[in-house]
Amino acid sequence: MKARLLILIASPALAGADLRQMVSELELKNGMKWLVVERHQAPVFTAYVRVRAGGANEQPGQTGLAHLFEHMAFKGTPVLGTQDFEREKGLLAQIAEVGDGLAALERQGKRDTDEAKALKQRLGELQRQHDEITDENALERIYLVNGAGELNASTDKDLTSYYVSLPRNRLELWALLEASRLASPVLRDFYTERDVVLEERRASIDSEPQGALGEELDHVAFVMSPYRWPTVGYEADLRAATLREATAFHRRHYAPANAVGCIVGDVKRDEVAPLLERTFGAIPARPPPPPPTFSEPPSRFLRRSTVVFDASPLMAMGFRKPRPPSRDDYVFDVLQVALVPPKKRKGPRLNPSRKKGAK
Q: Given 54, 162, 283, 338, which is the most exposed site by the fewest CB atoms within 10 A?
């Protein structure tokens, strides 16, 4: 057993040394960083774009925006997903104005007034006009016809990630599509997608005992930290969220210097570097936003809470730990793999609206 344990401890270090030799680091002129790993076993590649924007980067009263924007990033660009962008811009401006009015009434507790009903009717009319000239699935379709797999995204407390796998000869197509939606996404179907996120919250937290318990655990564990609120957002905040707020969130956080990309597969660094500079490097540079600042008081006592739910008994315990880039954070990652059975271990949260066959 001792020999086996020593091997298990030594192997990750050796693997890490090999991995460092395989990784090429690039930084574009606008400050965006990239990691390139050449693996020529098969003519495919997988690419990630990660933005330092998650639930912890939101403001009180605007929770859920990072996750909601993740949904919106699949809706296309001024070129992809529309028949007439000039006409669409006018409709989007009207939709934003009506949405602002509805959000104001929501915050005042006037959701069911005659004024709110009239605005909802007007919003529905505008959305129907908008649907006539747009195609919300254009991005997904162009990827699928070019052999894409694992097209998806995820949001957590600190990051939003977009990823896809493609044949090696579709590298330039990928770069053009991803750079354009990183630089200039069009927030189509915002209010429809907001309802999708509300349903996601109901399914994953409000009507799911483990989700409800996890949300309460964060409330108990943190007092001041933005890590206390759920990544999916609170219902009241989502109902009052506006297209303008989502646009401002993108402008603030989706700066090139606030993002990191990674390409792994049958690619060559010398070919990838100029392609990335030509596409992602063309995005205008902006200073990254400041990191979230908060002062979490020390935890001096055991805190407990009880969630009453019509379900079998379940208990959860949480312990505070350092966050990246602390080395201890990686130690905890290893401990989680060692202590939690594979069948109980959860992978990254997938966006339900992006699963195969969904819209």
A: 338
What pLDDT digit, counting tens, does each position of 168-197 carry?
A: 999 999 999 999 999 999 999 999 999 999
Candidate from 158-162, 176-180, 293-297 with smallest mean pLDDT? 293-297
Residue 151 to residues 2, 76, 146, 185, 264: CA-CA distances in angstroms?
43, 14, 12, 17, 15
**CATH homologous superfamily, domain 23-81+135-308:** Metalloenzyme, LuxS/M16 peptidase-like (3.30.830.10)
Tell me, what DSSP letter sits at residue 18? H
pLDDT tens for residues 70-88? 999 999 999 999 999 999 9
Peptide bond into 325 cis (omega under 30): yes
The label of the residue with tokens 């962008």 reads: 85
Do residues 289 and 248 touch, judged by C-beta distance below 8 A? no
Residues 165, 152: Cα–Cα separation, whole Å: 10
C-alpha distances (whole Å) from 333 to each of 89, 213, 324, 330 are 46, 22, 11, 5
Q: What is the pTM of this model?
A: 0.85
